[in-house]
Amino acid sequence: MLRVIVRRLLQLVVTLIALSALIFIWLRNLPGGPVEALLGERATPERRALLTKALGYDQPILVQYGKFMQRVVTGDFGNSIRTGDPVTEVISRAFPATIELALAAMIIAVGLGVPLGYLAARWRGRSLDNLTIAGTLLGISIPIFFLGYLLKDVFTQNIHWFPPSGRLTTGLDNTNVTGFFVLDGLLTREFDASADALWHLILPAITLATIPLAVIVRITRASVLDVLNEDYVRTAEAKGLRHRTIRGRHILRNALLPVVTTIGLQTGALLSGAVLTEKVYNWGGIGTLITDSISGGRDYPVLQAIILLAALVFVVVNLLVDLSYAFIDPRVRVR
Amino acid sequence: MSDPTTQAGTPAPRSGDDKPRPGMSERSIGVLGDRKKARLDELARASAADRGGVSLVRDAARRLRRNPVAIIGAAIVGLFVLVAIFAPLIAPHDPVQRFDELTKNLTVDTIPGASGEFPLGSDPLGRDFLSRMIYGARQTLFVGVLATLIGLALGVLIGAIAGAFGGWVDVVLMRLTDVMLALPSLLLAITLVAMASRSSQWTVIFAVAIVSVPIFARLLRGSMLAQRESDHVLAARALGVKERNIVLRHMLPNSLTAVIVQATLTFAVAILDAAALSFLGLGDPDINRAEWGLMLGVDGQRYFEVRPELAYYPALAIIVVALGFTLLGEAMREAIDPKNRR
């Protein structure tokens, strides 16, 4: 077990190094670079050369990369070109917002998706099944930013159930402990802040949950249908076990493996979706940071760090998913 | 609507008769590793698996024709393509012409709605919205098809090289695709667009295309590897056919099915991603271009409070077309799945 973890972690490091090199070289070789972004298109060549030198962009790319990696291993990703703040600080400020949103979305997707998929499979071909399938197809075909605007329009403009944007009502002061506003409120016993944060979280979370929800429903349904035809289910029925036991121990437990895999793979979709959802609801997380880093000049240090972080999160989550198999299903021997 | 992650389409072992045996698949839970890869490989193997007797393609086509889902999907796709081709004949007006009777009523917070000559009213620049919607089919088809084809071509190239050579070439190329698969697709597309000095229609097409490359590459490589050991390739090799011809004439053509199915599904993703890029302000900057993603992402967003129809119609068009391609693609996938052979 330990050897597997070590090997996978080594693979992870290799992937990240390869990725960092690719991104580094790509980003450096682009027109409209950070120098132009800072000085504008009409800056004199002298000023441009001066800044290029100051930022170290005049050195050979390998030297630049070497220096970059040297700093990265000490946790220094440089400073944001746009604001001048350290990249690690900029990102750690935005990161909890996105994690909070993504977790909420995943809770909705799994909490709703697994039961729905299971029920659809159990009543295959009936109206609930057909409705569910139609819903999932719609879910993966709708541009989620459009869905976001639609929900926002209905639930904040027509009926005022939810706040339209942001993470907290302005004027409401909360103590920042973890950066997860809902959790912070609970920790500091500022329950009004916690409730308010939750209130702000619901619509964005539903928007972001759409695609993972659709995918999870479909995988669960397909997986349960597969298991239903297995010999051991027939055996269990023949033995006269209670239906509840069969469903819980034999069907659901065996059907959940592919679902767990899917949950891991949806991390990527969540990060992509967060960029769009955060823009719709003005959420102020990593997604917003990405959009700002691109539209307000190309803020390479920030972009670079975010891409590496996204890949890291994705690979680590999937590693955890793989490792969790051994606990869910004893038949799986980790290789 | 079976899903490939749950069942590995392991090739049926060849017994005396050459008939494939359906239902010989077994669940693949014992294999750990990157599940995204595993899933693609399984898919590839499933489609490359048994063939013999009736041609797989003909058999699949027969099953497709009987599947109502496939027919609905094909009908939507067909209608969409027809509208795209005959847009100039169908559209009542020129999509880029600004009409005085529309522009004179334009203010900051009013955009003229439906009137006799302009059934869907005006767009924010006083152009006929209906005509733009109709021409939009053309541009959307263009973006989707081109993005899919570029992704397909690059992916097939990488996958074919990896599958044909094997060895370290395979390892290097597959590591590269792993790196690409580790990035969220939209984030990768955003980065690619951000790299261009100024965005254009081509940066969008290219960015959306690149995202699908690793998927195509993995799929094709998987099928090719499965082909390597298949009877007809062994036979060709025994007959002394040149290795190059084995790859080009035997392995590649037989491996393309899964890739073509994936291309159908990719089209839907491509137009959704293009719309997302427009929404993020990274889309095509040409204000004359009528493309649904662009119309939804830019005007639809900006004027949502003023005239939500500007978002509703392009969104509806995108949803229906994406749905059509998804339905068709999934029906095709189901049809070529050896599990479903009778």
TrEMBL record, chain A:
PANTHER family: DIPEPTIDE TRANSPORT SYSTEM PERMEASE PROTEIN DPPB-RELATED. Belongs to the binding-protein-dependent transport system permease family. GO terms for biological process: transmembrane transport. It is a multi-pass membrane protein. GO terms for cellular component: plasma membrane. CDD domains: TM_PBP2 (cd06261). The chain crosses the membrane at residues 9-27, 101-119, 131-151, 197-217, 251-276, 302-328. This is Peptide ABC transporter permease. InterPro entries: BPD_transp_1_N (IPR045621), MetI-like (IPR000515), MetI-like_sf (IPR035906). The keyword Lipoprotein does not apply. Keywords: Cell membrane, Membrane, Transmembrane, Transmembrane helix, Transport. Residues 95-321 form the ABC transmembrane type-1 domain. It is found in: Cell membrane.
